[in-house]
């Protein structure tokens, strides 16, 4: 950096995708898979969103921080080829929990996870560290966030959204007229603004690492970013916002997961196949979807390998799923290889992979969806 804190060169950016949480808010849907491996839109996975945004933003040093059910993520990541991350230098690196070194063991939250990788981050010597969650649906050129960070000489730039839902389930942010973050409350009982973090954080690397280490000594444990790390920087550092205008949704609950998919079929969500900014993924090795002669299909996304002979309305049908003649699926999401047999009815529900539904599985509405596990049973 020069005397004004600006980089004399193009900054070296390390992206860390947080993919280690158990995803307990999704209930039965994450009993057998990590949340980032959850299907999205029939043909994609949640982690594809962050990886695709990174690809389109030209950021190619990407680390995946894993912990819970890592094989379900690794089976999808392969070597990073769909996102052009299979490189001789840089590219995709998976960070599982480890032993035998400083920072070993299982992380107790995402900030603690960063602390456990601190020595590796120092060795890599990035200028900036971009930390991303892997359970949100949005489109963003991270280079714009970098521009905001450098222009304002920030220690931390957090991407924010003006949220029209329950802000108390997020980090709630107060922002001055100059874009500086003046207050931060992590999942408060009452939200004082509608501005929340999109869980996209760009740190100056030295500030991040020094802060993690000092907080470890002072607090004895870091937990999630909202417990100590971000509040400390808001209070003592230079923290600014970069406002995301456009679609953004946290898919970490059944309600939001179903809402996001209904947005896709209604045309209110992202265009996952936008030729200017497509979501990239491991291509399926499946036959095209089949819609039978007697099928009734309206406002639906039908993934490759699916077969529909019954009625499907305002729903997403996952790859390899089957809706038999005489079955009805409405306002729902069927994950991979689900079978709804003749007489089966699925409404306002999310049905887990490989389940067989032969009777009625219905939620109270889009805000109270039913979650059907792999055994075909409704779970709370």
Q: Any descriptors?
A:
single chain; 380 residues; alpha/beta; Spore Coat Polysaccharide Biosynthesis Protein SpsA, Chain A; UDP N-Acetylglucosamine Acyltransferase, domain 1; 9-stranded mixed sheet; 7-stranded mixed sheet; 8 helices; globular
What does this structure look like?
- It is a single chain.
- The chain is of the alpha/beta class and 380 residues long.
- It folds into 2 domains: 241 residues, Spore Coat Polysaccharide Biosynthesis Protein SpsA, Chain A; 96 residues, Hexapeptide repeat proteins (UDP N-Acetylglucosamine Acyltransferase, domain 1).
- The chain has 8 helices and 27 strands.
- Strands 15, 17, 19, 20, 22, 23, 25, 26 and 27 form a 9-stranded mixed sheet that branches. A 7-stranded mixed sheet has the order 5-4-1-6-11-8-12.
- The longest helix has 15 residues.
- The protein is globular, with a radius of gyration of 21 Å.
- The termini are far apart.
- The mean pLDDT is 89.
Percentage of residues in DSSP E strands: 25-35%
Percent helix, as a range, is 10-25%
Biggest beta sheet attributes: 9 strands, mixed
Radius of gyration, rounded?
21 Å
């Amino acid at each position: 950096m020069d005397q004004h804190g600006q980089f004399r060169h193009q900054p070296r950016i390390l992206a860390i995708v947080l993919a280690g949480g158990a995803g307990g808010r999704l209930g039965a849907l994450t009993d057998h898979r990590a949340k980032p491996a959850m299907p999205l839109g029939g043909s994609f996975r949640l982690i594809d969103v962050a990886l695709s945004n990174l690809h389109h933003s030209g950021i190619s040093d990407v680390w995946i921080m894993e912990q819970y059910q890592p094989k379900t993520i690794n089976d999808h990541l392969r070597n990073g080829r769909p996102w052009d991350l299979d490189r001789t230098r840089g590219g995709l690196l998976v960070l599982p929990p480890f032993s035998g070194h400083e920072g070993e063991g299982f992380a107790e939250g995402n900030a603690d996870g960063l602390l456990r990788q601190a020595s590796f981050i120092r060795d890599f010597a990035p200028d900036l560290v971009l930390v991303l969650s892997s359970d949100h649906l949005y489109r963003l050129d991270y280079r714009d966030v970098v521009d905001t960070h450098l222009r304002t000489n920030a220690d931390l730039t957090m991407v924010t959204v003006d949220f029209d839902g329950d802000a108390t389930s997020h980090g709630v942010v107060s922002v001055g007229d100059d874009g500086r973050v003046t207050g931060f409350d992590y999942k408060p009982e009452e939200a004082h603004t509608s501005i929340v973090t999109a869980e996209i954080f760009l740190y100056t690397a030295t500030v991040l690492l020094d802060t993690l280490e000092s907080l470890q000594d002072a607090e004895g444990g870091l937990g999630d970013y909202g417990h100590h790390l971000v509040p400390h920087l808001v209070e003592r550092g230079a923290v600014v916002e970069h406002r995301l205008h456009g679609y953004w949704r946290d898919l970490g609950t059944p309600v939001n997961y179903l809402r996001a998919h209904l947005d896709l079929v209604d045309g209110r969500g992202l265009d996952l196949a936008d030729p200017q900014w497509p979501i990239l993924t491991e291509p399926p090795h499946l036959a095209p979807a089949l819609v039978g002669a007697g099928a009734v299909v309206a406002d639906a996304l039908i993934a490759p390998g699916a077969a529909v002979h019954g009625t499907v309305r305002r729903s997403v049908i996952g790859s390899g799923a089957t809706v038999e003649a005489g079955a009805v699926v409405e306002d729902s999401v069927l994950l991979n290889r689900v079978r709804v047999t003749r007489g089966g009815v699925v409404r306002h529900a999310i049905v887990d992979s490989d389940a067989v539904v032969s009777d009625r599985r219905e939620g109270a509405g889009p805000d109270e969806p039913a979650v059907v596990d792999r055994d075909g049973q409704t779970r709370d």
